[in-house]
Amino acid sequence: MKQFIRKFFTHAITIFKEDWKAVAVIIFASSIQAFAVRYFTLHYHFPDLGVAGIAVLTNYMFGISPNWVILTGNILLVLWAWKYLNVRFLALTITAVFSFSTMLSVFEHFPLPLPNDKFMATVITGVLKGTAGGLMLNVGGSGGGTDIAAVALRRRYGLEVGQFSMFINLFIFAFSIGIIGLEAVVYGAVGLYVNAITVDNVTRSFDKRKQAIIITNIPDEVSKFINSLHKGVTRIEGKGGYTGQTRPILITLLNTRQVVLLKQFLKEHDEKAFVSICDASEVLGNGFKSWRSL
Question: pTM for this one?
Answer without folding.
Answer: 0.71
